[in-house]
Specification:
- Strands 1, 2, 3, 4, 5, 6, 7, 8, 9, 10, 11, 12 and 13 form a 13-stranded mixed beta sheet that branches.
- The longest helix has 7 residues, at 157-163.
- The chain has a single domain (15-232), classed as Acetoacetate decarboxylase-like (Beta Barrel), CATH 2.40.400.
- The protein is built from three helices and 13 strands, in the order E-H-E-E-E-E-E-E-E-H-E-E-E-H-E-E.
- By secondary structure, the chain is mainly beta.
- It is 7% helix and 51% strand.
- The chain has helices spanning 31-35, 157-163, 200-203; strands spanning 15-29, 42-44, 51-64, 76-87, 92-101, 116-126, 129-136, 142-152, 167-172, 175-182, 189-198, 214-226, 230-232.
């Protein structure tokens, strides 16, 4: 069972941020279709026999290293296409199939294998709707999503499994890297979808999903702490940060 609250404390963050105005769009897929997109060190995590992939557009706010005041930091849009994995020794986390970002400074994370791609992204609110759109600078995949947030929900076991992950894995220079994450629990609401057009899943190599998407909205979490990324030794399982 995935923890609803952070599994570890990040006492010395490498980066602080807020993840705001976030929508989670999740599709289920055959596990073997997702497994072939993963490095050998990771196995697809399943919920009720299916693998899940999430499209998660949001606003990155107050992004800063330790010691920098939030008022002097940028705010920009980002969109992740992610799936859920486990190391072969059992620790669960995220694996990013793609990351679209409107701030070129974030491309520095490519040093540890984070698949950042610069693009033109937007997040706008009008009345009771939230609209997201994005396209890469060099062409190719794009998306457009319009949702209408509804009532808050008490997260089910599946909701927690899909949204509450406390480390991300990347791969670079033949090594698997782990980045620990700490933040408050996601406040979740249901959401109706008015528009959903995207080519990110196809570009990532995914087939047609098994069913209709499951959609949640969150106003976001304001106190995100990302720990330093570090390479995972073969068979090693890091303790709490």
């Amino acid at each position: 069972m995935v923890a609803y609250e952070a599994e570890q404390r990040v006492h010395l963050p490498a980066l602080r941020a807020g993840w705001l105005t976030q929508t989670f769009v999740h599709w289920s897929f055959p596990p073997e279709a997702v497994q072939r997109l993963l490095p050998a060190e990771l196995i697809v995590d399943e919920y009720e026999g299916a693998a899940w992939v999430g499209l998660t557009p949001f606003v990155m706010a107050d992004v800063r290293p330790p010691g920098v005041p939030a008022a002097r930091t940028p705010t920009f849009a980002e969109t992740n296409l992610r799936t859920y994995v486990r190391r072969r020794n059992g620790r669960d986390g995220l694996w990013f199939l793609s990351i679209e970002v409107a701030c070129p400074l974030m491309l520095a994370a490519r040093a540890i294998g984070a698949p950042y791609t610069p693009g033109v992204l937007s997040v706008t609110r009008s009345g009771d709707t939230v609209s997201y759109a994005g396209s890469r600078w060099v062409g190719g995949p794009s998306y457009r999503l319009v949702v209408r947030p509804r009532d808050p929900v008490h997260p089910t076991e599946r909701d927690v499994w899909l949204t509450s992950r406390w480390r991300a894995y990347t791969r670079r220079l033949g090594l698997l890297w782990e980045t620990p994450v700490e933040h408050e629990p996601w406040p979740l609401a249901t959401a109706a979808v008015d528009v959903l057009e995207e080519t990110l899943t196809t570009a990532a190599g995914l087939p047609t999903p098994l069913g209709e998407p499951l959609v949640h909205f969150s106003e976001g979490v304001k106190h995100v702490r990302l720990g330093p990324s570090r390479p995972c030794a073969p068979g090693q399982d890091f303790g709490p940060t």
